[in-house]
Design brief:
Helix content is 42%, strand content 35%. By secondary structure, the protein is α/β, with parallel strands linked by helices. The termini are far apart.
Length: 120
């Protein structure tokens, strides 16, 4: 399940991802991201990655997720909150590929990640 929320009055978007991924999850995420880009021109993203159930990811949703990579060009900052080593490594790759500032935080430091995103 992918929950997408926005910190009111900001361009900070939280993607809280755990379990599976549906087409509806992807569509909701795109709507939120499009609205924030329209209102602010860019995104600061808090990606919270819990236990992901690969067997519960819709193939169409996975394809939509790959195609959503274009949103990376609108990122100012990306904070990844996870205890999964593989996710931290992907965060490093993202930083290198799209030249965005990325920081990884352990799961118990979510509030620190949000504070970092809120800094000017």
């Amino acid at each position: 399940m992918l929950e997408t929320t926005v910190q009111p009055g900001t361009n900070i978007v939280t993607l809280d991802y755990r379990g599976g991924l549906s087409v509806e999850d992807e569509q909701r995420m795109r709507q939120v991201l499009d609205g924030v880009i329209r209102d602010h021109g860019s995104i600061r993203m808090l990606a919270v990655l819990g236990r992901i159930d690969v067997s519960d990811i819709s193939p169409r949703a996975a394809w939509m997720d790959l195609k959503a990579a274009g949103y990376l060009t609108k990122l100012d900052r990306l904070a990844v909150v996870t205890d999964a080593a593989w996710a931290a490594k992907i965060s490093e790759w993202t930083a290198e590929l799209v030249h965005v500032t990325v920081r990884t935080f352990p799961a118990d430091r979510r509030s620190a990640a949000l504070a970092w995103l809120a800094q000017p």
